[in-house]
Specification:
Helix content is 4%, strand content 43%. The protein is mainly β. The protein has one domain: Jelly Rolls, CATH 2.60.120.10. The strands form three sheets. It has a five-stranded antiparallel β-sheet. The protein has a three-stranded antiparallel β-sheet with strand order 6-5-8, with no helix packed on it. The chain has a two-stranded antiparallel sheet with strand order 3-10. Strand 5 and strand 6 form a beta hairpin. It is globular. It starts with 19 loop residues before the first strand and ends with a strand.
C-alpha cells in the first residue's frame, strides 16, 4: 500500500457516469475506504441513482460550488466548505440542479468500501 500523492485530475474518469467521477480508491488500491472526486455540471447527478446503503456511511465534502441532496425528509443545499453525511439506510441523491450557475466539485468518502447500494423509489 504505502504512501501516495494523487492528483485526481490526472486520473481517468469512471465510465458510464452522469457526472465526471474519478476513483482514488481504485488508483491507490484502498480496500476499506471508498474515495472519489466528482465534478458535476448543471443538470448532472453524482451517484448513478437515488439510493441507500446497508452498511456504508457516505460523506460529501463540497470543494467548490453548491451541492443539492434530495432525501425523503427534504432538500439540502450544501455550500463549498461544508459536508453532507448520509448514514446507512438513509436514501439520498446528490446532484447539481439544471438551474445552477456553475459546476460543483465534491470529494466523496464511503466506508466500509462495500458495494451495498440499493435504488430507492420515492
Amino acid at each position: 500500500m504505502g504512501y501516495h500523492v494523487v492528483d485526481p485530475d490526472a486520473l481517468e474518469p469512471m465510465p458510464d457516469r452522469d457526472a465526471e467521477a474519478r476513483s482514488i480508491t481504485d488508483h491507490v488500491g484502498l480496500t476499506n475506504l471508498g474515495l472519489r472526486v466528482y465534478r458535476a455540471d448543471p443538470g448532472d447527478q453524482l451517484p448513478l441513482v437515488y439510493h441507500y446503503h446497508d452498511e456504508q456511511e457516505e460523506a460529501f465534502y463540497v470543494v467548490e460550488g453548491e451541492l443539492n441532496v434530495e432525501t425523503p425528509e427534504g432538500e439540502y443545499v450544501v455550500p463549498a466548505g461544508q459536508l453532507f453525511v448520509a448514514t446507512p439506510g438513509e436514501p439520498h441523491r446528490a446532484y447539481n440542479p439544471a438551474t445552477a450557475d456553475a459546476a460543483v466539485r465534491v470529494l466523496a468518502v464511503g466506508a466500509p468500501a462495500v458495494d451495498d447500494a440499493h435504488p430507492y423509489e420515492p
